[in-house]
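Subject: Major facilitator superfamily (MFS) profile domain-containing protein

B.,
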Amino acid sequence: MTTTDLSRTTVEAPADPRRWWALAAVATLQLMVGLDLTIMNIALPSAQRDLGFADADRQWVITAFALGYGSLLLVGGRVSEAMGRRRALLVGAAGFAAASVAGGLAGDTGVLLATRAAQGAFGALMTPSVLATLSTTFPAPPERGKAFGVYGTVMGSSSGLGLLLGGLLTQYLDWRWCMFVNVVVAAVAVGLTVYAVRPVSPVRRPLDLPGALLASLGLVALVYGFARAETDGWGAGVTVGALVVGAALLVGFVAVEARVASPLLPLRVVRDRHRGGSYLAVLSLAVGMFAALFFLTFYLQDVRGWSPVRTGLGFLPLTVGLMAGVRFVSPRLARPSAVLLIPSGLLVIAAGLALLGLLHADSGY
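Prediction pasted inline below.
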């Protein structure tokens, strides 16, 4: 058989009949992760009153999840390869659900923060397998585009939906249900995964343990330094020390990645201006948006006296905007002009954040 025949055979191989169910499975898993990036925002004032944690600690309920998720994504990709994609999805979903139950039952701040970090860690295990499953389940470009369009819609709308759902659960049930609800979502996702996602042979590569430790500890130190700046000031020894240590650890991470045979993050990836620029844009988006969501939650509930449901509904324009924006952008991603969407989008977000910075206690909605 010639190379052409082999190529034709590959292209004409029958599509997986369960591929759309597989899409539903991984989209549900990623929806769960996306929801938990924001669902606790609206619940924070209620959780703080219930558990009695200090104002300086409340941001860690959000940050612990983001740190566990973001700092372990690279490690999660390598571990999910070694476990096998399907098994990584199932283990990640089960672990996420277990951490959610423990968080919902938390009797003190330490347990809640630990379970939030665990949620992020299990989310970091699932996300690489979600993306790999989409790529291999939909090899044909037209269908792959549709599949990633659905994935993008789910990810784009999940943060806004998390705010709305968090308000409803907090007011009509209890803030703890913002954690318990993940059990239901995980159960649905596990059933779909078992039914539709095909097992794939594990791929074993050396784990860059020094790089993983340097990246994770460096990010934790930086975030801790920024957090201490709020209470101790930018000139405090603990603030400066944490920031210096964090920066040094991340510099060490770059040095290690340049030398190891199987790096977690090949430096050629970030040296590419398109990828590097995209990562910088995502970082800027996350820093601006999540900080705004955090402070707006307390502004609306503690300053304006809104109920959790009214606060969730107050974020409804954001939810609608996210969903509409994703639907508008997805069909245009394949065009050369798509690169213009990034700076224009960031400028619009910056303008919105600047206007929010003008809010006063008696500002109108």
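The CA atoms of residues 152 and 178 lie 23 Å apart.

T.
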